[in-house]
Amino acid sequence: xxxxxxxxxxxxxxxxxxxxxxxxxxxxxxxxxxxSSASSAPAAAPEVAADPxxxxxxxxxxxxSGVLRVGTNAEYAPNEFLRGGEVVGMDIDLMDAVAAKLGVxxxxxxxxxxxxxxxxxxxxxxxxxxxxxxxxxxxxxVNMVQYFNAGTQWxxxxxxxxxxxxxxxxxxxxxxxxxxxxxxxxLPARQQACADAGRPAIDVVPFDSQQDATAALAQGxxxxxxxxxxxxxxAVQQTEGIELVGDVYDAAPYGVVVPKEQTRTAEAISxxxxxxxxxxxxxxxxxxWGAQDGAVDEFPVNPAQ
Length: 305
Hints:
The chain is of the alpha/beta class. Helix content is about 30%, strand content about 25%. The protein has 10 helices and 14 strands. The strands form 4 sheets. Strands 12-11-13-10-14 form a 5-stranded mixed sheet, with helices on both faces. A hairpin with a 2-residue loop joins strand 6 (about 80-85) and strand 7 (about 85-90). Helix 3 (about 90-100) packs across helix 9 and helix 3 runs antiparallel to helix 10 (about 280-290). The longest helix has 17 residues, at about 265-280. The protein is elongated and about 60 Å long.
């Protein structure tokens, strides 16, 4: 089921936006069981003013409506998740700032992660932002605008009672979210390595949401979970009884997804990211969620793999 969750209007009378969503940073996620709220609030973010030249690069339908329809899977805290029915998170703060620079309002629609790219292709969304790792397969389907860098991380129950080694997980029971690079690329490669070595297969337990995968670990129903590094780092802070294990690996950029034929839209989003980076709003959004280690300083369309 598609849950439409429009954001507040971000354009004021003067055509600027202050990223009010940043005030939510540091708060615990409703979507992670056992979470606790932090009390610190980030510094106020810079205002973002619209750039008419970038607005003119958008499709006429977006210019006429003043709304950029953005698909997301709001179950991947701290990047995108629901709080009180509103979509919030690092990606959301970034996209709000980009939309403001483009002179439009971002309106978010929450959907299953593995439906977002087809939703962009089918004109259900003008763009999608949902911690999409840029890879060759996705670049064949859509344009992607780089905006962040993240790797993969493993987590286990506190104390690692099952002795899980991410370098040798054969025979382990591992939770993962459907449609992610971990489910589609990482674990299949590890499964093949286990088979080639004549070792027991990994028991992969897929979930439609990352929160359910994390909960399965906390409840002892699986022995490990793997996901993007900022997501698991946040989950460990918010969920009792789990801890990180091993190093972050396979760092790769995240990208905003844009229809393949909408090259001008992709370029406009790229230039908007560059502008908010120069003005300070990009760093403010990243730092508000403690994710500055993944910040980038270039925002190319379809970065080389």
